[in-house]
Design a protein that fits this description.
Among the domains are: 37-61, no CATH class; 71-118, Recoverin, domain 1 (Orthogonal Bundle). A hairpin with a 7-residue loop joins strand 1 and strand 2 (55-60). The chain has helices at 3-18, 64-67, 74-77, 87-90, 94-98, 100-103; strands spanning 41-47, 55-60, 85-86, 110-111. A two-stranded antiparallel ribbon has the order 1-2. Strands 3-4 form a two-stranded antiparallel ribbon. 31% of the residues lie in helices and 14% in strands. The protein is elongated and about 70 Å long. It is α+β, with helices and mostly antiparallel strands and 121 residues long. GO terms for molecular function: calcium ion binding. Pfam families: EF-hand_5. It comes from Luteimonas yindakuii.
Length: 121
């Protein structure tokens, strides 16, 4: 037997132990209750390969209570009138200040209206 074959056989138990095993949902004739979604769906992602078990993740707008945390008036925050929000200007909005790095997709240290389109305004 070749060294490669022996190496594969030696690693096989480790590979099998590392696999995640899942149990199917009980088949009682009823579908699981959907998650409660207060706002409109904003995205969907599917993980897994066709023909295999897949996981679907959906994102929704925040409910009315959280929506106000993401509402901004760009022109009011843009105190220097340059058409961008820097970290100092964003500090006036606690949620935006906390998520500034994630919203600043081009990492230039300032937020454009385009970068803020994903926010509920």
């Amino acid at each position: 037997m070749s060294r490669l074959a022996l190496a594969i056989l030696a690693l096989l138990p480790l590979a099998l132990a590392a696999q995640t095993r899942t149990q199917p949902l009980p088949q009682d004739g009823h579908a699981p209750a959907p998650a409660s979604a207060q706002g409109s769906q904003t995205g969907i992602t599917t993980f897994g390969n066709p023909g295999e078990q897949q996981v679907i993740v959906r994102s929704y707008e925040p409910d009315a209570v959280l929506r106000d945390q993401y509402r901004i008036v760009f022109d009011a925050l843009d105190t220097n009138g340059d058409g961008y929000l820097d970290r100092a200007e964003a500090a006036a909005h606690p949620t935006l200040a906390a998520e500034f790095g994630g919203v600043d997709t081009d990492t230039d240290g300032r937020l454009s209206k385009e970068e803020l389109r994903g926010w509920i305004q």
